[in-house]
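ligand=iron/sulfur cluster
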Amino acid sequence: MPKDRLKIEKLESENLSIENLDLTVGETIDETADWEPLGPTPYPGLTDLRDWDLKLMERYKPQYYPACSQCCFCGFGVCDLSDGKEGACGLRLHDQVARKNFMRATWGVSAHTAHARDVVDDAIEKFGPNVSLNMGDYVDVEAPNIRLVCGMKPETLADLRTVLEYVEEEIVQEVDALHTGQEGEYIDFESKALNAGMLDHVGMEVADIAQIAAYDMPKGDPDAPLVETGMGSVDKGKPNILVYGHNVVGAEDIMRYAEENGLWDEIEVSGLCCTVLDMTRIDQHPKIVGSLASALKFIRSGVADVIVTDEQCVRADTYREAKEVGSKVIATSTKICYGLPDRTDDPVDEIVEDMVENGQDGVLITDLEKVGEVSVKVAQEISDKRENVRAIPSQDELKEILEKCIVCGSCDRSCPNDLPIKEAMEEAKEGNLEKLADLFMNHCIGCGRCDEACPNDVEIMRAMEKAAEKDVKEENFKVRVGRGPVRDTEIRDVGAPIVQGEIPGVVAMVGCSNYPDAEESFREPLYRAARELAKRNYIVTLTGCHAIDVAYFENEDGESIYEEFSGAFKARGVLNCGSCVSNSHITGAAIKIANIFARMGLRGNYKEISDYILNRVGAVGISWGAMSQKAVSIANGVQRLGIPVVLGPRSSLYGRALMGDRDKPELWKTKNKRNLDEEFTIAPAPEHLVQYAESPEELMVKSVKLCIRPADTEAGRQIKLSNYIDLYNKYFNEKYPPDLYMFVRREQDVPMKHRKDVMEMLEEDDRWEKGKYGGSQPTLLDEKEIEEGLGKVQ
Ligand code: SF4
Ligand code: SF4
């Protein structure tokens, strides 16, 4: 539980001299604070919301598809868990799969929370503890996740330390539960994973509101500026510093150094993944090279004179790869040190000299101000000297590379996207580089496995990059800077249309960029889905890799998706919320709909708010690429709030779904929140809480279906069914989806254009029964939970 903490490094006054005081006093839940009454679950511990999780899992049963049937977590094993066998500790296979999901979620929440700790501590060191968490004129509910989970309203950076202490303590308890001989039942591993996910959204919110406040990032600005993205956006004529990772605090020092020394015309700062997304929220000079999929491609291009790494989603071989092309590496996070010497306490000039003159290829510097100066100076001094480094091969070198290829096909077999590399190499040997270039630009996710697999050490990626040299130069698109939170005023405007179903849904596209291949390009399905849904009046919200990758396309008028659609949280809006930690604004928006639109108290009122979201807010999460562990914890947090998630096929390795069973009416029995004596059966919506999609078409159809909610108005249900029918028809070439009978409560639910046909079809269908599904104010809560909650029945 949180405590008040007073830390004073040094204080001298007439009567008092204090040095290194670190004082912790009491617990700080102020039940009398007048901003809102306190709900039943402030600062929940491991099991305080377990009953809510069990209710969710009663309806949405965990399903497991193990990728591996062994456990090798401890020295009692390796244990074979196949065919119903138990491990040495008594764990069964499905328990182990649930445990792995939980374990991944703990890694994810730890990554974001440790990141948040760095941001808050760094911001307090730079700007002091009293920086106000003012999110701008249009945002009063500045921290919906923190208010909901912790029951506190943070006002300054210092308040965020209290929140972090709570989350950090809970993470320790969670990790403890993973130990051999601790938790043993799948259902409780699941509950703990959902708990980790919930904490993750708190941790992410801490990180993002701290950096928004400290660095004056956009505060819910729908018209945030557009910036350049793509490998071609980088000016290769200037000394280049590439920042790489997810934590902007060190990169901010580089930008500050460039600004204070008037160097923006003399150096080029570019970046990969979320760090650069967040940099552009502070200053628009840096260029976004791309997402995770561009990392190895760009590093191997040798364009970067200096690579500054921070944390998360950074390739383990970054230092080794950088050395190959003569780029210098500065590691800045204690979490990624690469075995490099710690030069944090050395003078700047000595470090620069060693890196420029004395062959030091990489250093660890955790003093971020020093990183700013060292990185710029090293880049400036070595840039000219590196002109002879030709990371991209010459024509002659390309010929030599191609000649080594014995056309064995090992590369094809190692490629996760089954790309026809051998065929492209064969054609390239004949002088036609087109296929190789196309693979590089549109289909290769930059994993490097083909190079590793080649028995003849053919540098396949270098060959591809040379073949695509001209296309790379032209890879330059527009992405809107991350806007941060959704404004309270936007929630007021869209609350009713979302809850009543007239805006058919809020779609959150979140995840990593190692997508399965697709006909035109591996990124295209994501763009197609975002555009299709936006055109159909859905609100599309994006963060991280997904936010970057949808920008790689232009419409008929040459506009990127961010130019074609508004950046506002409204129908047809396409919002880049920011980096991974900005995901908290998407869950925050769902929470704010319950709080601002439905006037439901949110302070420590987790179950009631989640129950509202599950039953009334048509929202769905999409992750098309493979998910990192952070994405697993993000998704678990989304699920606990009652928002379903559709995962792309790459995530099937995680082997877990939460599935409803439409054919079991008892699972869909619910009470009327207004009159608990009344019980009714709802249409099975949302049908699942976690499910997979094998194709982009399935992804879209499943996503629109999962936006259906039991409390939709008839007009709203008509709009949602209209989208479901249209997309099903468009992608599966059948006039009507076979499960339409589940979602038609009465004739008025059917879109006018289809009403006659659909009603005729339903009248002949034994499974459909007029009035079978119905009721209003559905709830999963019991009388006591409703009494304890803060909600008004709408
Ligand atoms: S694995 Fe190497 S040698 Fe074999 S086809 Fe691929 S590039 Fe050629
Ligand atoms: S680097 Fe590209 S081509 Fe090579 S294996 Fe990975 S995805 Fe396939």
